[in-house]
């Protein structure tokens, strides 16, 4: 598929195939045109499922990544929790932001959207660095996010104890069971399609470890991935790692794997104190 | 009932006439000469046996209720009348294709000299009937397959299955209908369905999957029905440009409701009646046992018709409805009322009145609508029962209002809110009656009292449907 893991040496590979998940060119152009017209309003809102009873690990990570990114850009946004946020979203994925008349979902399109409004974190990067950043973001999406989804829905213990009850909490019986099993079936089908259906939990933890190792190596001792200034990659990595560290699952194996990389731990702590005043939403 | 000839007093086998005649064609029996008339009317007869021939899977005990009245006949004319009524009852069960009656004198052991035997020759419907047709709607086509199994277990149960395969969505439904033996107006009906609909006036798509059980029974002159229904509704936006207020309604919900409806219908016909009245009152209580939505919904429909001079008919109809959320929940877009269109307040686009956001109509929690029509036959068309008789011209005056209520205020505030900003329209048009089920209308409308946000359709408007204001 995409990126060679765990070591990515952009300088040496010429035929690097990047499958960056972004919108089509036409859609991008449309969004840019519409977005550039107005400044960022005060009433911008970010929608996610209910925090205490409903939201799951993967959605929480994605939502936190977007929140971190917007805080890094200095754009105010209010977090609104709705039970049907997943269905309100135009692409079916969490989170999405409602800015003026526009509704944009997922980190990639949101980054494009804010860029069209004149706010960007990756302007200072040259082309090579930007390609590297996109590659690492792909790595996080393809490994970390997929691992989170696997652990939530394909691991029977977690699915039964945590995912299904939480996912179906806003609904009455028997709708709650129907929706939870439907979602589980969908995710398992997707996992089988990308080749993760046969992996065992240990192999998935191994993938997470390898991904963290790559990130840790890239980060080194710098404060952020691209030296002094945070970029969307920092927001994405923070979102996922912080959520993994602070979410209670059936076992602590996942959190332990992340904790073994101390520079990633201090990276998360640093971003939390700088942008979230010590408490993240 | 046709004519019966009797030439002598001897017990000759008498072939009763085929009683397949319409009520309109019933004439009074001709006056026979005195002697023969005495035979027909005054001679006492006793119905000794009633046979039903040609039964396959129908259970005999089920039919006793329909034919038992025949035994009570006292004279020959009475026998013929009761046999005719029994035949109508048997046909109404919906399990026979044909019913023929033969009245004969009694034969064999224990036959009395004035005894009669009545035989019903019936032909049952086939076990399975199917139907297939295609429909074409707004930019999509559907293939509809229907399968009907009448008289499933021998007691007039009916099983219907319907599948609709469309270019965009598929729907299906299955329903089982069981009348009570002896009283076919009482029945139980079980349904399960999946239906998808697209509502462009609200930019939303709704898919309903549900099951219901309905009990229908008559009380005095009204027909009552009690229904318990459970529906899983899935709402999603039809396009990316849907208003955010509609986007907020996307998602899943479960409605579990008990509803009751009462219909009192004394109209002479369902479409374009000449006289009579219709009163329909419907209540629905949702959320009392399970489900995500809880509300109380009331719906009232009244129609009065009166014939005037020159074959014209004056018709007044009134509709009203109220949706009351229970507890501190808000109402869902799937449950609210909509108003406007060629079948309700004419002159306005379909369901395009009342609360809206960004061009998408959200529906209202309370509404009222009224219509006053004057129907008259086409001028210069004097032939009855011709094709032109299916047409009518009509002058109409429609009015209505749809709004949301803040239930913290009192009822007088609500009435005031419904009374201000009334939309109304007037015009004239042509109505075509299709059988006894539907009608088509072509109207020229002038909408008045238009509020900002309403979408109007002034000028020529075409409408087709079953239920019109």
TrEMBL record, chain A:
* Coiled-coil zones: none
- Please provide the Gene Ontology terms (biological process) for this protein: mitochondrion organization; protein transport
Q: Which GO CC annotations does the UniProt entry carry?
A: SAM complex
Tell me what this protein is called: Metaxin-2
Q: Relate the assembly described in the record.
A: Interacts with MTX1/metaxin-1. Associates with the mitochondrial contact site and cristae organizing system (MICOS) complex, composed of at least MICOS10/MIC10, CHCHD3/MIC19, CHCHD6/MIC25, APOOL/MIC27, IMMT/MIC60, APOO/MIC23/MIC26 and QIL1/MIC13. This complex was also known under the names MINOS or MitOS complex. The MICOS complex associates with mitochondrial outer membrane proteins SAMM50, MTX1 and MTX2 (together described as components of the mitochondrial outer membrane sorting assembly machinery (SAM) complex) and DNAJC11, mitochondrial inner membrane protein TMEM11 and with HSPA9.
Domain (Thioredoxin-like fold) spans: 62-157
Q: Where in the cell is it found?
A: Mitochondrion outer membrane
Say which family it is in. Answer: Belongs to the metaxin family.
Asked whether the UniProt record includes Repeat among its keywords, one would answer no
Q: Which Pfam families match?
A: GST_C_6 (PF17171), GST_N_4 (PF17172)
Q: Where is the Metaxin glutathione S-transferase domain?
A: 209-271
Q: What does this protein do?
A: Involved in transport of proteins into the mitochondrion.
Q: Which organism is it from?
A: Knipowitschia caucasica (Caucasian dwarf goby)
Which coarse location class applies to the principal site listed for this UniProt protein? mitochondrion
- Which SUPFAM superfamilies does the record match to this protein? GST C-terminal domain-like (SSF47616)
TrEMBL record, chain B:
Name the InterPro entries on file: Bac_surfAg_D15, D15-like, POTRA
- GO cellular component terms given for this protein: mitochondrial outer membrane
Ligase is among the record's keywords:
no
Q: What are the UniProt keywords, alphabetically?
A: Membrane, Mitochondrion, Mitochondrion outer membrane, Transmembrane, Transmembrane beta strand
- The POTRA domain, residue ranges: 45-125
Q: Which GO terms describe its biological process?
A: mitochondrial respiratory chain complex assembly; protein insertion into mitochondrial outer membrane
Q: Where is this region: Disordered?
A: 1-26
| Main localization category | mitochondrion
The cellular location(s) given in this protein's UniProt record come to: Mitochondrion outer membrane
Q: Matching PROSITE patterns, A to Z?
A: POTRA (PS51779)
Q: Among its keywords, does the record have Lipid metabolism?
A: no
| Pfam families, per the entry | Omp85
List the membrane topology term(s). Multi-pass membrane protein
Write out the similarity annotation: Belongs to the SAM50/omp85 family.
Name of the protein in question:
POTRA domain-containing protein
Species of origin: Knipowitschia caucasica (Caucasian dwarf goby)
